[in-house]
Amino acid sequence: MTAISRRLTGARGSRQGMWMLPLLIALAVALWLSLETAQFLNGENLLNLVPQAMPLVITAVGQMFVILLGGLDLSVGSMISFTTAVLALGGPAWVLIPAVFALAALVGFSNGFIITRFNVHPIIATLSTQYILLGITRVLRPVSGGTVPDIVISAVAGSFLGVPMPVFWGIFILAVAWKLLYGSRFGLHLFAIGGGVSSGVEDAAHNFGIADRRNIVLAYVICSCFAALAGVFLAGRIVSGDPNVGLLFELDAITAVAIGGTQLSGGIGSLHGTVIGALVMALLANGMNLTNVSPFIQTTIKGAILLLVVALQSRKKMGL
Amino acid sequence: MAAAFANPVMRRLLRVPPAYYVFAVLLVVLWVARPNMLNLNIMGIFVRQIVPLGILVLGQLLVMRVRSIDLSGGGVILLINYTISSGAFPGASMAFFIVLALAIGLAVGFFNGLMVGVRRVSAVIVTLAVGIVLVGIVQYLSSGKPPGDVPGMFADIYNTKLGPVPTPVIFWVAFSAALSLFLSRTVFGRYVTSVGENVQAAHFSGVPVARTVVLAHTLAGLFAGIAALVQTASIAVGSVRVGLDLPILAVAATILGGVVFGRGEGGVWGPFFGVLSFALLFVVMTTFGIDEPGKLIAQGLIILLAAIFYGIRQRSS
């Protein structure tokens, strides 16, 4: 027992945040669903859960990198819609797919560049990016339609060696994110920069000789690219471009990250927590669909969860 | 670039909020492209349409001066529009609706204020989440279908004129003037300035920081309630989409008017002209045939460019 409480409060796990609590919540939600509805433990429903959760897992993991350094990226929802619209433009896959990621990297770079070089608050910078991207998406594709390249569809809907493709997506995402966060100097610097920001010393990491601007820009590029990856996945599922598919996705992603124990003020958080947080959100969405909760009230419930989670986190800074 | 910013004449010019320049440029563009549109009657109609935004901006500038933000205005407007037009209170008087709207606005604003000022939660996330909660409630209650009509008395008041100027416009100007006086003459106005300049210094000088932030948010909620009444009167029917793009426009107009987080040099009249710039911008874009996506891009670009403008200037000083 003391070992558990030390692990929860002690120095060793303190950088990871409270990720065990959401794990319990996830198990509780799953238990409730399996008792409440007969369909939940159905094999087909469980198989559907992975592709349902995947876009949110991908976006939330990307968002986590930015949140860890005390920032926020509100443009990921538009980025997802934009990606599906570009993929549905019609054209060879070997042009469209690299183009999508090049554009995402460009958007992420411009976010990071504006934030670090022009002293613009991350929320303002990404809020304006969100609107610019949404406008461009609506120009490209005013209503949903078009077809995405076949390779994207088979990469999402197909299976390899009898295992559905989304499982491989999940393994790939987790491997990349794990390497970036725990296996690279970049990941270590993220925690250093965010830890300074959250304790009120904005340039603490900079004073220790960490190239903070470069790392911040890189984090925004990663966040945008993960959002684009989620967009490719969604495009493969809906088989067309949709200007509204990413609507409010940024809030779901932020909620997932916050549920997973990552502090929105930066410096504290973990990859496994974020994945668990995204799974909690996906389980809730699945459960609300199975129990026929109105989609309109689902939005309200998600908003209320976000309010609750952020209200439970304490921080020093006031305002934005 | 830094040298140009250091020049005294340039510095004086840069201290003027960009809203005035944008307003002047747009006026010239319109004068060249469509000179016959620049008369008092047509302009009165265009400005009348933007009054709800103008009132929302008054609340937005208040919270942005204490380094906060309020994105829940769209949800408040939608909820109030729904309660008035749904016919849930048949035969209710005008005064009842006004009190109800103000109460809803005050309650939402007070909640935002508590979360931001006392719980110290990120203002963007709180107000965005409150906004979606309210939108979700309205969509659930109305099942996504537009509700009924607004009582006729709203439109009757909205359509009155004093000489050539529509009453809503006069109300807006008077309201702005009152807020301007309120901020420059009262203790609360001083508190707002000092909290915006430096939260810690304000705290150690005995300024009740949390109370100031809560009050600023409560007032912003109240103003959103008033904006909702004007908006409801202007469209005269119930809607499930009304006002959803207003919060972001309010942020854009406020930034354009020289009020950036904590810095209030644009006063009340800078954002006022920011709103007028947006009124003109929409007229200009409509005359040049630019539709909704173009307007989204323009909003985003304006926020971005104005924020970059302040960022560079802050660094060079």
UniProtKB/TrEMBL annotation, chain A:
Protein's UniProt keywords contain Membrane: yes
Keyword Protease applies: no
Primary localization: membrane
An MF annotation (GO) of this entry: transmembrane transporter activity
TM stretches of this protein: 54-74, 86-108, 120-140, 152-180, 186-205, 217-239, 271-290
Any Pfam family matching the protein: BPD_transp_2
The entry's keywords: Cell membrane, Membrane, Transmembrane, Transmembrane helix
Membrane association type: Multi-pass membrane protein
Signal peptide: none
Compartment annotation: Cell membrane
Cellular component GO terms, alphabetical: plasma membrane
Protein's name in the database: Inner-membrane translocator
From TrEMBL, chain B:
GO MF annotation list: transmembrane transporter activity
Highest classification ranks of the organism: Bacteria, Pseudomonadati, Pseudomonadota, Alphaproteobacteria, Hyphomicrobiales
PANTHER family according to UniProt: ABC TRANSPORTER PERMEASE PROTEIN YPHD-RELATED-RELATED
Compartmental location: Cell membrane
Sequence intervals crossing the membrane: 12-33, 45-64, 71-89, 95-114, 121-141, 169-188, 209-230, 242-261, 268-290, 296-312
Protein name: Putative ABC transporter, permease protein
Species whose genome carries this gene: Mesorhizobium plurifarium
Domain of life assignment: Bacteria
Membrane topology: Multi-pass membrane protein
Cellular component GO terms held in the UniProt record: plasma membrane
Coiled-coil annotated spans: none
Keywords from the named record: Cell membrane, Membrane, Transmembrane, Transmembrane helix
